[in-house]
């Protein structure tokens, strides 16, 4: 299987890229623990910024941008991570997904995540990111992950989970959905056998 993470971070190093890497590793680890091989790829949108702008103006993607779009639409699972700009996703993030065919992500398992300087922006996951991918008919996992500056290195407390725990839970949910969709797309199985395998694969910790 192929897992693609899209990072819209602009700086180097980037907390957005770091979160994308950790989420991808979490999902990959869950799949590997259940004997599922997965190839991971991270797409850095800042490297495609000029190509994205040119595509919006001309209607034609550069070869590098076309390869990135093909990777996203052809993946078995997608992780989409953006920094918070003006209480929403970044313009570069939105512009890239504006170039995706509206039907290309139908049913695709997607994990949404965001980074920001303060926890006050965490609702961006629900009022901006989740509706965007619902419009694209993606299957967004229940747990979305927001990482504020103070979350890095935090273990949480008795009332809240720390960032590592949220990453593990979200990665497990994405892995489970990817496994289910892969089984559903396998040829030659009757509906009962496919359903039994799907229920078995859903038992990710």
Automatic annotation (TrEMBL):
One Gene Ontology MF term: oxidoreductase activity
Pfam families in the record: FMN_red
Top-level taxon of origin: Bacteria
InterPro entries: CE1759_FMN_reduct, Flavoprotein-like_sf, FMN_Rdtase-like_dom, NAD(P)H-dep_FMN_reductase
Coiled-coil region(s): none
Keywords: Flavoprotein, FMN, Oxidoreductase
Ranges for domain NADPH-dependent FMN reductase-like: 1-152
Database matches in SUPFAM superfamilies: Flavoproteins
Name this protein carries in UniProt: Oxidoreductase
Upper classification of the organism: Bacteria, Bacillati, Actinomycetota, Actinomycetes, Kitasatosporales
């Amino acid at each position: 299987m192929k897992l693609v993470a899209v990072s819209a971070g602009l700086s180097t190093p980037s907390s957005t890229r770091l979160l994308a890497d950790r989420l991808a590793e979490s999902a990959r680890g869950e799949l590997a623990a259940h004997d599922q091989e997965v190839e991971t790829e991270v797409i850095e949108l800042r490297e495609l910024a000029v190509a994205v702008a040119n595509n919006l103006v001309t209607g034609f993607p550069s070869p590098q941008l076309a390869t990135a779009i093909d990777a996203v639409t052809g993946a078995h699972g997608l992780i989409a991570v953006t920094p918070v700009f003006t209480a929403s996703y970044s313009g570069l993030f939105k512009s890239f997904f504006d170039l995706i065919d509206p039907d290309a992500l139908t049913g695709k398992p997607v994990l949404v995540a965001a980074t920001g300087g303060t926890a006050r922006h965490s609702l961006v996951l629900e009022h901006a990111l989740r509706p965007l991918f619902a419009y694209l008919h993606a299957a967004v996992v229940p747990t979305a992950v927001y990482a504020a500056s103070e979350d890095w290195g935090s273990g949480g407390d008795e009332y809240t989970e720390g960032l590592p725990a949220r990453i593990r839970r979200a990665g497990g949910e994405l892995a489970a959905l990817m496994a289910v969709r892969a089984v559903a797309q396998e040829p030659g199985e009757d509906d009962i056998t496919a359903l039994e395998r799907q229920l078995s694969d859903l038992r990710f910790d």
